[in-house]
């Protein structure tokens, strides 16, 4: 059985230090030490990270890095990259980092030449993407493909959508993607309403190929396609491809396995959009831009794998999150991208972080005695400023926030971009330094209004600034958060790569479905009454 991390000297030292740290004032710290940003900043690839506006001193960082050493973070990183079975509850390797290894790399895991396999699939994806993008691959009636509809959910949806939106300026072949995820029939109905089946290609993405939502939507989509194309079953082969680890179920569904793009059980769903799960994205942006994105991932992977903890950006940010979560009592964490292109990034991060670290037993199955996974949330700036920032500025809760910004705009409206990014810098400064009562009084407002206008400041933020949002920087950003999540999970001693918590609800939905149709079945009184009301309202 592993040691409870809270009983280590390193944890106790942090707990004692947290008592003093509560008195820390960012204004005073910056006045005393203007060179603070030089020390409390680091770089990973193109991502410059200033963490000086956090509630930390040099001692905090020393204590946090000591904790990382105590739990063997460096060894855990090495174990992940080497393909050890660190997903213990499923007895699997965790090798999303292998998805972005260059062709020249070498990695054999469990007898599998991982690099050769990854590149064989990438090559097939690239060839297929070129055929579709060039118009060589045509629909059943000879039409060029104009719309790709990705059907998938969770990791088979959130990553592809997020990246498709983020890389909008790289969509260059006149192919638009749409995404169907929810089993709510609204999603499918609205998405297909104005599409022409003759020019629509479906990518059915499911690691297991057994997910109820995805298979239900895929069956409906097939029926829609066939009814639009004269009910000729031969049409399916030209309009349906699959992305999965499960060739048997793909075949049973009726998709030719020649039109299947595979991946492996060592790629977790939420870590998968850089595998074949990114096929719809590749169809929109092309194999070269997709390759640039993979190269970006790899830059941060190498940084994480080789950099000492003191300068290791994902490790430092993960440790800061542990600091707020476990020692200063924060419950949530805001992620605020100053890029409209990243408008789905917070939703993507929610699955990455919360499905990974929402655990309450250690890898040995012992109940944890401390808080684990943070609640991540956010919206792009400046929309968030006009919605929930008030609570961050003047509310009573501690909410550490990551600000993500880019120096160069993606569209040539330079002055507008300056005005936009001025908000990024202003918000982080206002959150850190606030406005005192004396400063408010000096503006001449009435004494009764002064307390309402005082800005306490001292709200922690981390600024992540990159030159420009590109496929490469997107890859770097995602790898950064993957490894932040890994670092947190390592400190907490949990398995960040399983997700058993979502299974029970899935099983129960299957059990309850017949009851909605009026068949007998057991359930609790509250659920039984709700189903009865539902049936009445459906006129059953
Ligand atoms: O229910 C959770 C989950 O298993 C996620 O982890 C996964 O990303 C999603 O469902 C979809 O799974 P699949 O790709 O197998 O359809």
TrEMBL record:
<feature type="active site">
    <location>
        <position position="386"/>
    </location>
</feature>
<feature type="active site" description="Proton donor">
    <location>
        <position position="355"/>
    </location>
</feature>
<dbReference type="InterPro" id="IPR035476">
    <property type="entry name" value="SIS_PGI_1"/>
</dbReference>
<dbReference type="GO" id="GO:0048029">
    <property type="term" value="F:monosaccharide binding"/>
</dbReference>
<comment type="pathway">
    <text>Carbohydrate biosynthesis; gluconeogenesis.</text>
</comment>
<comment type="similarity">
    <text>Belongs to the GPI family.</text>
</comment>
<dbReference type="GO" id="GO:0006094">
    <property type="term" value="P:gluconeogenesis"/>
</dbReference>
<keyword id="KW-0312">Gluconeogenesis</keyword>
<dbReference type="Pfam" id="PF00342">
    <property type="entry name" value="PGI"/>
</dbReference>
<dbReference type="GO" id="GO:0097367">
    <property type="term" value="F:carbohydrate derivative binding"/>
</dbReference>
<comment type="function">
    <text>Catalyzes the reversible isomerization of glucose-6-phosphate to fructose-6-phosphate.</text>
</comment>
<keyword id="KW-0324">Glycolysis</keyword>
<dbReference type="InterPro" id="IPR046348">
    <property type="entry name" value="SIS_dom_sf"/>
</dbReference>
<keyword id="KW-0963">Cytoplasm</keyword>
<dbReference type="InterPro" id="IPR035482">
    <property type="entry name" value="SIS_PGI_2"/>
</dbReference>
<dbReference type="GO" id="GO:0005829">
    <property type="term" value="C:cytosol"/>
</dbReference>
<keyword id="KW-0413">Isomerase</keyword>
<dbReference type="InterPro" id="IPR023096">
    <property type="entry name" value="G6P_Isomerase_C"/>
</dbReference>
<comment type="pathway">
    <text>Carbohydrate degradation; glycolysis; D-glyceraldehyde 3-phosphate and glycerone phosphate from D-glucose: step 2/4.</text>
</comment>
<dbReference type="GO" id="GO:0006096">
    <property type="term" value="P:glycolytic process"/>
</dbReference>
<dbReference type="GO" id="GO:0051156">
    <property type="term" value="P:glucose 6-phosphate metabolic process"/>
</dbReference>
<dbReference type="InterPro" id="IPR001672">
    <property type="entry name" value="G6P_Isomerase"/>
</dbReference>
<dbReference type="InterPro" id="IPR018189">
    <property type="entry name" value="Phosphoglucose_isomerase_CS"/>
</dbReference>
<dbReference type="GO" id="GO:0004347">
    <property type="term" value="F:glucose-6-phosphate isomerase activity"/>
</dbReference>
<protein>
    <recommendedName>
        <fullName>Glucose-6-phosphate isomerase</fullName>
        <ecNumber>5.3.1.9</ecNumber>
    </recommendedName>
</protein>
<feature type="active site">
    <location>
        <position position="506"/>
    </location>
</feature>
């Amino acid at each position: 059985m592993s040691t409870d991390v809270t009983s280590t000297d390193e944890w106790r030292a942090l707990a004692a230090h947290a008592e003093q740290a509560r008195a820390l004032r960012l204004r005073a710290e910056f006045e005393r030490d203007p060179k603070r940003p030089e020390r409390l900043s680091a770089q990973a690839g193109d991502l410059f990270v200033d963490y000086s506006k956090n509630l930390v001193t040099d001692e905090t960082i020393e204590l946090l890095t000591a904790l990382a050493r105590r739990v063997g973070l460096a060894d855990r990183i090495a174990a992940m990259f080497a393909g050890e079975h660190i997903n213990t509850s499923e007895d699997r390797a965790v090798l999303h980092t292998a998805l972005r290894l260059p062709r020249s790399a070498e990695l054999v895991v469990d007898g599998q030449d991982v690099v050769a396999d990854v590149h064989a699939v990438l090559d097939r994806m690239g060839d297929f993407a070129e055929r579709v993008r060039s118009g060589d691959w045509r629909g059943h009636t000879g039409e060029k493909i104009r719309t790709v509809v990705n059907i998938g959910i969770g990791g088979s949806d959130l990553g592809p959508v997020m990246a498709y939106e983020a890389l909008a300026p790289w969509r260059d072949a006149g192919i638009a993607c749409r995404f169907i995820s929810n089993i709510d029939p609204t999603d499918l109905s609205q998405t297909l309403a104005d599409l022409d089946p003759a020019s629509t290609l479906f990518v059915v993405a499911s690691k297991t190929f057994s997910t109820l939502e995805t298979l239900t939507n895929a069956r409906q989509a097939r029926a829609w396609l066939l009814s639009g194309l004269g009910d000729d079953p031969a049409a399916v082969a030209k309009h349906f491809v699959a992305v999965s680890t499960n060739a048997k179920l793909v075949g049973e569904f009726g998709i030719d396995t020649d039109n299947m793009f595979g991946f492996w059980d060592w790629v977790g769903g939420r870590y998968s959009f850089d595998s074949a799960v990114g096929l719809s994205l590749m169809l929109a942006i092309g194999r070269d831009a997709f390759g640039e994105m993979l190269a970006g991932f790899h830059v941060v992977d190498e940084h994480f794998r080789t950099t000492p903890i003191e300068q290791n950006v994902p490790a430092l940010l993960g440790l800061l999150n542990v600091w707020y979560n476990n020692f200063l009592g924060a419950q949530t964490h805001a992620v605020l991208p100053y890029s409209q292109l990243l408008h789905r990034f917070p939703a993507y991060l929610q699955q990455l972080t919360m499905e990974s670290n929402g655990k309450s037993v250690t890898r040995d199955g012992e109940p944890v005695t401390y808080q684990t996974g943070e609640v991540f949330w956010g919206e792009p700036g400046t929309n968030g400023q006009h919605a929930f920032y008030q609570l961050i500025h003047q509310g009573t809760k501690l909410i550490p926030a990551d600000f993500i910004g880019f120096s160069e705009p993606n569209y040539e409206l330079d002055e507008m971009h300056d005005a936009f990014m001025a908000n990024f810098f202003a918000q982080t400064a206002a959150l850190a330094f606030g406005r005192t009562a004396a400063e408010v009084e000096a503006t001449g407002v009435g004494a009764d209004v002064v307390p309402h206008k005082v800005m306490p400041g001292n709200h922690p933020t981390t600024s992540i600034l990159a030159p420009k949002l590109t496929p490469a920087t997107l890859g770097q950003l995602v790898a950064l958060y993957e490894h932040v999540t890994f670092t947190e999970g390592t400190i907490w001693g949990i398995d960040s790569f399983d997700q058993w918590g979502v299974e029970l609800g899935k099983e129960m939905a299957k059990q309850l479905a017949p009851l909605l149709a009026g068949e007998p079945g057991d359930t609790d009184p509250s659920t039984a009454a709700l189903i009865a009301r539902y049936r009445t309202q459906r006129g059953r």
